Amino acid sequence: MAVFLATRKRGMRDCPFCRAPTPKEEQVLAMIRKRVAAGDPMATWYLGTQHEHGEFGLDKDMTRAVELYERAADLGVSAAHFHLGVMYMMGTEVEEDMDKAFRHYEAAAMSGDVDARFNLGCLEKNAGNNDLALQHFLISAKLGCDDSLSNVKKMYVDGNATKADYAAALRGHQKAVEEMSSPDRAEAKALGFAKIQLVYLSRTRQSVPPGRCDLELVDCILLPCGMLLI
């Protein structure tokens, strides 16, 4: 984070590692497609997002997006599982299928995806499974999810969680917030920067799942040195 803040404050938009100029969109797309052809998990997921939103000069193509998300999910990308979970839950461009949504959310949650864990809690709560819902909310609250903490509090008020449950959620949430705090993050917020996250596009089939944070992600750019700037 520090190196990106330093370069951005100096007005530099080139790669902070190799200093090569940022490639043009058509170059980026060609590089990503090459990585997809090589079976790169993160590149496959990212190309799916571009087809979903019609970016990089691509036509919006949900069929292609789902195909790429499914492939990335098979390669272990938690973000792909989360995308598919949302799409199947909402019936967005695909037929609504709650079983598939649940399976994809479970896979993402098992990889540490906080949003997927929260959604699992909501699904269980809506189904009347308060005990299972509480467990999901407790786990995600302790990972820093504000909404999960609020839901644990509501369940406590409604008599579906104990005082000890709520106290544990509060302690875990506070600890997570403290652990995620840093001078660089505070400076980024003060400067109005979105969090910059680097994901190395592995030349193997090993997945490097993207993290979640409380800051919006900037657009992804594949840098000349083989990094995916998110």
UniProtKB/TrEMBL annotation:
What Gene3D superfamilies does this protein map onto? Tetratricopeptide repeat domain (1.25.40.10)
Biological processes per GO annotation: ERAD pathway
Pfam families attached here?
Sel1
* Cellular component, GO, one term: endoplasmic reticulum membrane
Checking PANTHER family in the record gives: SEL-1-LIKE PROTEIN, SEL1L ADAPTOR SUBUNIT OF ERAD E3 UBIQUITIN LIGASE
Q: Which family does it belong to?
A: Belongs to the sel-1 family.
Q: What is this protein called?
A: Uncharacterized protein
Organism per entry: Thalassiosira oceanica
Its ancestry begins with: Eukaryota, Sar, Stramenopiles, Ochrophyta, Bacillariophyta
